[in-house]
Write a structure and sequence with these properties.
- The chain has 144 residues and is mainly alpha-helical.
- Helices cover 70% and strands 7% of the residues.
- The protein folds into two domains: 70 residues, Winged helix-like DNA-binding domain superfamily/Winged helix DNA-binding domain (Arc Repressor Mutant, subunit A); 69 residues.
- It contains seven helices and three strands; from the N terminus they run ααβααββααα.
- It has a three-stranded antiparallel sheet.
- Strand 2 and strand 3 form a beta hairpin.
- The radius of gyration is 21 Å and the shape is elongated.
- The two termini are 24 Å apart.
Length: 144
Amino acid sequence: MRAALALSLPASVGQIYGLLFASPEALSLDEICDLLKSSRGGTFQSIKWLRELGMIESVRIPGLRKGHFRAVLNLRKLAVTLLHRRVEPHVNNGNKYLRQLRKSIVANDDTVTAFQHARYEQMERWHRFLSDMLPLITAMAEKV
C-alpha cells in the first residue's frame, strides 16, 4: 500500500494489488470485496485501474463464469507500463503547458515579472531534463 501512495495511487489500489500479490490463487471481484470489506463499485474501479496500469491481469478459470485476477510480478513490465502511462503523458504535454504558463506571465511589475521568468526558466530546464532522461530511463527499465 505504501508503494501505491508513493506513486500517488489511492490506498485501495495498493490494498488490492497487495492482496493479489499475497494470494497463491487468482481471486474474483467478490472474493476481493469480501476479504477487504470493500464496496463492489469502488473495488471494480480500482481493479479496472490496476488492469489499465498493467499491474494485474485477468485469468479465466475453467468451469467458473466469474473473472479472476492475479498480480503481475514482472517488475520490468510494471516499471515500463507505469512510465508509459503515468509519466510519459505529463512529460509529452509539458511543452503545451509551458507555453500557456509563459503567456500568463504578467508584465506589469518588473520584480514579479523577473521572479516569474526565473521560475519559468527553471521549469523549462526541468522539463528538458525529464524529456531527455525519460527515454533512457524507459530503455533501462525495459532491459532489467
